[in-house]
Specification:
Layout: H1 11-33, H2 39-57
Helix pairs in contact: 1-2
Length: 59
């Protein structure tokens, strides 16, 4: 019987995901402000960071 297993997310996992997301978004913004990436690249990376965080919390 193949079924999707649902794991509960612990508060520690939530905290880790939040901290990771905050640092990734911070460095993404720094790269944009220094002119190392374009606004388009910054926005694409924000979407990828959000998707990654959502996936890690929904496991």
């Amino acid at each position: 019987m193949a079924g999707k297993m649902s794991k509960t997310v612990t508060p520690e996992q939530q905290k880790k995901a939040f901290v990771e997301e905050a640092w990734l978004k911070y460095y993404n913004q720094v790269l944009f402000e220094k002119g190392m990436i374009t606004e388009r690249e910054r926005n694409l990376m924000i979407n990828k960071i959000d998707a990654r965080t959502t996936r890690s919390l929904s496991r």
